[in-house]
Amino acid sequence: MANFIIGGWTQNIHYQVPPQFDVIMYGMVTNLTGLTTGTADAPGWSPTKVSAPRNSLATVMWTYGGGGAAPNNMPDSDQGIEQIVQCTKNHYWDGVDFDDESNMNIAMVIDTMQQLTPKQSSYTFSAGWDYNNPNSSTLGAATNQAVKNIAAANCTNRFILMCYGAQMWSMQDIEQNVRPAIERTLANGVARKHIILALTPAGLTDDNLDYFLNTVKHYDIGGLFIWEVDKLPEKALAYISASLTSTAPKSALPC
């Protein structure tokens, strides 16, 4: 996929992956003790029982964590690490995305990533105001330290910067946080091509999409990922693909 990779997440295990995708991540596995989607009381599918879907040439990963993941400080044991590693290998997943929205145990995340090798892994985190203001935010300070520790361990393939909330941020918040987050991640020791910028279809417009695409190319980072890509309009996906794989004129497409 030229200089940049395109990928994203879906919560639909039967999702047909678009041919433009290099990486697809299924999840979110938010019941971290039972390794299932859903909750401990209402579990969904599990990567311990479901083999990686193979309906494309994309790298196929499952996501450990995400919004609402519980409990905090996971994984919390060698047995937990072994379960993650073995289910990934036994069910033919290409790797694991660690979506840290639950104050994960970073030392054990690093151990897990190392044991997953040569399978792939990624570290996904919110890269907004907290991340950019670690001196004013306990969460931001912890996230910066996590990025530094994982980068120093040289054990993961990608750092995915979630630059959105329930929907795309306002343009003011985007301009104040997206590029500073990339610069901060570089300063934290992450290789340029290991940085991925992520957006969401909710609230996506021509202006904010162009800003993200231009930022990916300006910094020459790894690429762009999309949360809930199954909700992304086909025209927007075509525009993303054309923008990151060619020098075609940038005529904005409706989102």
List the helices and strands and how they pair.
Elements: E1 5-10, E2 23-29, E3 59-65, H1 78-90, E4 95-99, H2 106-116, E5 120-126, H3 129-132, H4 138-153, E6 158-162, H5 171-187, E7 195-199, H6 206-219, E8 223-226, H7 234-245
Parallel strand pairs: 1-2, 1-8, 2-3, 3-4, 4-5, 5-6, 6-7, 7-8
Helix pairs in contact: 1-2, 5-6
Terminal-residue CA separation: 23 Å
Mean pLDDT: 94
Look at the helices and sheets and give the structural class.
Answer: alpha/beta
Major sheet details: 8 strands, parallel, barrel
Describe the strand arrangement of the main beta sheet, using strand numbers.
Answer: 1-2-3-4-5-6-7-8
Number of strands: 8
Compute the gyration radius: what is it?
17 Å
Strand content: 15-25%
Q: Helix and strand succession?
A: EEEHEHEHHEHEHEH
- Give the proportion of residues in helices: 25-40%
**What characteristic shape results from the CA principal axes?**
globular
Low-confidence segments: 247-255
Number of helices: 7
